């Protein structure tokens, strides 16, 4: 009976010890497994918002994180976020202005383009790259960053844009140095005409590129675009602040002077009556060249117009008309003046345009 009690006690203590050992083993195994599990989930730096900004700064990258069951699914998910982002930014309203010469030789900002409600469902994004990605075992999900390096993408466009920009800036900078107003106007018109290549290249960028590069284009070419837009008003100001005085030496009832004034006014010049305040003088020399025809008066009219500045003659044109025959000298001169005015109206506008680009 005594041995039996001792055996029972021994069995009891052995049982307690076994339970303790098993419990301890389970606790230790759980701890080890917990450590192993925590070691497996090492999140990359870009997994957090701050880390993403540090590795892919928004000033240099367009980037989004995508997720999916596979790496490919995660990449596609990231692309869809980027696509929707551009869709939102472009649809909100993208506006640009383009300047060019109009057909009549005047200049103005002629086009304003608004891109609204643009859909990108079939848009092919280009310049997309991906990082190595990250597989989260706990979530059984892949995480991938899709990104566009803005500066690298810009490099393919910058050389041609700068080349076109330099073309019009060469004319513009020459205009700034030119002392003669009409030559400044000519150079400004040339600058405006050559700027079309630059503005067209900007307009031909893909809509999403316009959004992508907006900060870069504003920084690199913003002042140039403002300059192009300002050129028409510069030309207008030059014409108005450099007035013309018309001097006709042998007119008839002001017919020829009226014709010349009309042309210069159409070209945008201010025509004034005080020679002392004029920047230019349109000196018109009329020759009637009488040629007696029995009892009638016959004339072979011609005239020369010279636009003179302080430094000398800027532009010269000569016109002549068919022989005029009339019973009196006054009647003959009046007909000759009308014929000369018609001739000068036809030829002077093109002459000024071709020589002075005005």
Furnish the topology, listing elements before pairings.
Blueprint: H1 2-40, H2 49-55, E1 61-68, H3 71-92, E2 94-101, E3 107-115, E4 128-130, E5 134-136, E6 141-149, H4 150-154, H5 158-177, H6 181-203, H7 207-212, H8 214-240, E7 244-248, H9 255-266, E8 271-272, E9 280-287, E10 297-299, E11 302-309, E12 312-320, E13 324-326, H10 329-356
Parallel strand pairs: 7-8, 7-9
Antiparallel strand pairs: 1-6, 2-3, 4-6, 5-6, 9-11, 10-13, 11-12
Structural summary, described in words:
This protein is an alpha+beta fold. It is rod-shaped and about 175 Å long. The protein has helices at 2-40, 49-55, 71-92, 150-154, 158-177, 181-203, 207-212, 214-240, 255-266, 329-356, and strands spanning 61-68, 94-101, 107-115, 128-130, 134-136, 141-149, 244-248, 271-272, 280-287, 297-299, 302-309, 312-320, 324-326. The protein is 53% helix and 22% strand. Mean pLDDT is 82; it is low at 90-123. Strands 8-7-9-11-12 form a five-stranded mixed beta sheet, covered by helices on one side. Strands 1, 4, 5 and 6 form a four-stranded antiparallel beta sheet that branches.
